[in-house]
Amino acid sequence: MNPLCQMFCAQFSGRGLAKAVPLKKLQEKGFLEKNKLIVKVEVKVVELVDKGKETGNKKLDYNGFHVRFSQVYSVSRLFVEHPDIAENLRFKNNLLKTTCMNMLLGLIQTLEKTPHSISETELSNAHSELIELTEAGFKLDWLKTKLDEVTLERKKSNSDDDDTQVQELEEENKNLKVELNKGKRKSSDKVLSLEQKESDLQNELNKKKAKSASPKAFSLKNVFYFWKTKS
Question: Mind telling me which residue stretches traverse the membrane in this protein (predicted)?
Answer without folding.
Answer: none
